[in-house]
């Protein structure tokens, strides 16, 4: 039993450690020449994870990852994100909008059969998690406050689904 536990730790601990470390933008990604955007979907998921697990900061790496994600979202023919004002109530927090788009893309790639409403629910949940984790780095947001109140009342998912 102890051997199995040690084996599991040896196998999975390095993987968990590596996943939280640095993500590098694929060097062969050029949004103007790429024809197969689906090939970069795993990198989009990794970029989304990286952004959601790091505080907002001005760094070259964050700028490169953000640029990669925005360029992929702008050019890919397989995914469209609608920034609906009834859902994106946190435009007073630009970093929150970026996290929304990253989380939406991640959820849509992993769950291609889900509806836009389900992608919106997952993305706004990710924004709330991010905001609560890094609020000291982010501006106060009336929209986030609105969603937190809905979540506390158990009305969050219903609101998003009804307004998507």
If you had to describe this structure to a student in words, what would you say it looks like?
The protein is mainly alpha-helical and 164 residues long. Helices cover 62% and strands 0% of the residues. Mean pLDDT is 89; it is low at 1-20.
Can I get a quick summary?
The chain has helices at residues 2-19, 41-52, 60-75, 94-110, 116-134, 142-153, 156-163.
Shape: globular
First-to-last CA distance:
49 Å
Proportion of residues in β-strands: under 5%
Helix content: 55-70%
List keywords for this structure.
disordered N terminus; 7 helices; mainly alpha; single chain; globular; 164 residues
What secondary-structure arrangement, pairings included, does this model have?
Blueprint lengths: L1 H18 L21 H12 L7 H16 L18 H17 L5 H19 L7 H12 L2 H8 L1
Helix pairs in contact: 2-3, 2-4, 4-5, 5-7
